[in-house]
Amino acid sequence: MTRSVIAGVDGSPESVAAARWAAGAAARLRTDLLLLHVGDWPVHVAHGATFEVHQGRIRDLLRSAAAEAGRDHPGLAVRTATTAGDPIVCLVEAGTQVELLVLGSRGQGAFQGLLVGSTALAVAARSRCPVVLVRADQPFGSAVSVPEVVVGVDSKDSSAVLLEFAIEAAARMKTGVRVVHAWSPPPHWFGGGTADADAEHAQAQHAEVDRLEEILEPWRSAHPGVELIPATRVGSAAEILTEEARRASLVVVGRHDRRHGGIGRLGAVAHAVIHYARCPVAVVPRD
Which SUPFAM superfamilies match (predicted)? Predict the structure, then answer.
């Protein structure tokens, strides 16, 4: 694997935004950026003059995307490439050779609809490297301060790879990391109303806070230059992460490499955050 970054380009506004975001990531990694166009070419353009016209359009598309990608990073090395084939298969294969894959995400605002592209979802579910999904309305420019990176964790060891990705991204972006731990109390607590029940609830909340602090202690020691902000909250992880995303520059979620018939799947939390978060979402394989 190289430290290169690949952005998938198909001419859509979302893919242009992905190329620009990927350019920033590549610049921070001090590596190059590859803009990759993948498509199933219709039979009628496989030969002759029509093929040349089609190829010319793709070259123009990539040239325009490269210009957009380099707008904020004039010294960045940007390469372009095109290949024919199934976009999901080709992008997943490309992801085995690089550190980061960036794709456009056609999501709607909160609870207005589910329009994230099927290609983006399939690649995020199967890629061996982290995949960042970027919306077309992602703001760009030289902000004075960068919003925090948000990452959702649980109390299991599998959260380590998510924390590592989030902290390294935040260090390069010169911002902090808000570490969100969502938990749900037993159903019988919701009746409440008694001193014993309230005390039990408070004790459990303190235990969850302490557990998150234990998880973060070695990371604070290893990365003293990155502020880690713990956030332990009661409720749905998907809803809490989506809410936190409103104030974030990037949200990091995990994906277990559970496979059914050779096909990876996104969990409910990752699915919800991808659909509803307004900022870019990084899907990181845990295994």
Answer: Adenine nucleotide alpha hydrolases-like
Of the candidates 136, 140, 132, which has an alpha carbon nearest to the alpha carbon of residue 100?
132
Q: Are 201 and 192 in contact (CB under 8 A)?
A: yes
Range list for CATH 3.40.50.12370 in the chain:
143-287
According to CATH, where is 3.40.50.620 located in the chain? 1-142
| Residue 104 host element (H or E) | strand 100-104
Which has the higher per-residue pLDDT, 129 or 188? Answer: 129
Of 169, 198, 187, 205, nearest to 279 by C-alpha is 169
Counting beta carbons within 10 angstroms of the beta carbon of residue 141, is it exposed (0 to 12), middle (13 to 18) or buried (19 or more)?
exposed
**Banded pLDDT at 249 (limits 50, 70, 90):** very high
Q: How many residues does the chain have?
A: 287
What's the CATH code, domain 143-287?
3.40.50.12370
Q: Which CATH superfamily is domain 1-142 in?
A: HUPs (3.40.50.620)
Question: According to the model, what pLDDT value does residue 55 have?
Answer: 78
Q: What is the pTM of this model?
A: 0.86
